[in-house]
Design brief:
Layout lengths: L9 H15 L10 H14 L9 E5 H4 L44 E4 L27 E5 L5 H11 L1 H6 L13 H6 L5 E5 L4
Antiparallel strand pairs: 1-2, 3-4
């Protein structure tokens, strides 16, 4: 689960993340560790619980306080006025979100996240079933998994069949960040799982 942690500067967080990766892959040059290796180790930990792993994850950082990493001054860069600039995307003409007057965090005002190897989000539905957009500023590649909306009923049915008592207690479980099941199991149950590796700068 998630717990409140300490306050870290970015350089310290990066140092801790790099050290964790070096310790985990002890004896191997971490520059040569592939995305596939990290992915294999991650799902092995989730499925078999061979070892306990604790990682740090900085989530839901208010970019109106910390910044988005995108320019906002039009004189500084042409990107400042781009509709794909995360400072602008919610207010682009024609966007449904442009009708909202309040600066809702995580909807109008982007959130910033900091992760390290093995930090992850559980399977979940996005708030209000909206789409999500993410920009990867720097670091190691990030792996995303998704299930098409047309498979949502089957996805929920499979999840309920795997953990019926949990869903009985928490019927809105897929709106919380609490369910981690290997894509392998979903695929075995007939649910296509899409995967993408997001590189820095994408």
């Amino acid at each position: 689960g998630f717990e409140e942690g300490k306050v870290y500067s970015f350089p310290l967080f990066e140092k801790i993340g790099n050290r964790f990766k070096e310790c985990y892959f002890e004896g191997k040059d971490v520059k040569n560790v592939t995305i596939s290796e990290v992915e294999t180790h991650f799902w092995r930990i989730v499925e078999h619980r061979e070892r306990e792993v604790e990682v740090l994850y900085g989530n839901d950082l208010d970019t109106s306080v910390y910044g988005t990493g995108f320019p906002s001054d039009p004189s500084s860069s042409e990107i400042a006025e781009s509709p794909w600039n995360l400072n602008n995307i919610a207010r682009v003409p024609g966007s449904m979100l442009a009708c909202l007057k309040d600066n809702i965090l995580g909807v109008i005002v982007p959130w910033m996240y900091f992760g390290m190897m093995f930090s992850a989000f559980c399977w979940h539905n996005e708030d209000h079933h909206m789409y999500s957009i993410a920009y990867h500023h720097f670091g190691a590649p990030k792996t995303w998994y998704g299930v098409a909306g047309s498979y949502a009923p089957l996805f929920e049915s499979v999840m309920k069949s795997i953990m019926p008592s949990v869903f009985e207690t928490y019927p809105d479980l897929l709106y919380q960040l609490a369910v981690m099941i290997s894509p392998r199991i979903l695929i075995q149950k007939g649910i296509p799982v899409h995967r993408a590796h997001q590189m820095p700068g994408e």
